Amino acid sequence: MPVPCSPSGPSGYFTHDAWVIHAKTDTTGLLGIMASLHEAHHASLNSSTAWGALLQALMIAVRHARDPGRFKATLGDLVRSCRRTHEAFATHASVMDIAAADAAIAPERLLGGYRDYRRYFDTAVQVGPDADIMARRVQKLGRVR
Q: 100 in a domain, yes or no?
């Protein structure tokens, strides 16, 4: 199911086996790349973690079981309980991928029209492997606190 992002910028969603990007108006292409990287990072989590494997298994059960209703509620509960973690990871990773390619591109430039995703990015910076190091890296990319 699509997650609303920016009314004018690209958006996307991950369906457990593919992702869809709606480019909308993106004159630089950067926001479309960020949206695609974001969804790719969701796919990465789902293919490399125990929680992701469980999400995949439940989605398969929902799609193929004779009585999918009994799996839908569990899938929904699991998605809701790991949404913040998944979104923080996918948002931070996609922004940092672009910043690694061009350090002149600050997170604000990418996340300006995505208020909710800005919060996810900030969450990842605050709880990352070393929050102080991550905060300094983000500041070096032009972020002003």
A: yes
Write the pLDDT tens digit of every residue in 65-93.
Answer: 999 998 999 999 999 999 999 999 999 99
Instruction: Report the domain count for the chain.
Output: 1
Handedness of CA 12, 133, 128, 116 (dihedral sign): negative
What does pTM read for this prediction? 0.79
Enclosing domain of residue 77: 11-140
CB atoms within 10 A of CB 12: 21
Q: What is the gyration radius of the CA atoms in the chain, in angstroms? A: 16
> Cβ contacts of residue 97 below 8 Å, gap of 6+?
37
Q: Distances in Å between the alpha carbon of 54 and those of 11, 64, 129?
A: 25, 15, 24
